[in-house]
Amino acid sequence: MSLNESSEDPRFIVWFDIDNTLYSASTRISQAMGQRIHAYFVSLGLSEEEASGLHHKYYTEYGLALRGLTRHHDIDPLDFDQKCDGTLPLEEMIEPNPA
Question: Tell me, what is one Gene Ontology molecular-function annotation carried by this entry (predicted)?
Fold first, then answer.
C-alpha cells in the first residue's frame, strides 16, 4: 500500500521506544522484553543456544531482532508484536512519576 492509499483503519499509530529512554531502567522493561524476544526465537524451533545467538546477531546487525526476523524468516511482524510487546504488563511495571 502506498502512503496515498487509505487503509481500513484510519487511526494513526504512534510507536514509543521504551528501551530505558522513556522509563527508568529500574522498571526492568528491557529485561522482560528480552525474555519475550528470546522465547519468540525458541518458538521458531531454535534451541536455547541458537535462539540466543541469532537474537544477538540480528540485534547487532540490524538494531532490532524484528528486522532480522522479517528479513530472514517468514514471520508476521504483528504476531511478533503481540507476543513480545503486547504481553508486557506495563501497568504493573510503570508507576506514575509526575516529577
Answer: nucleotidase activity
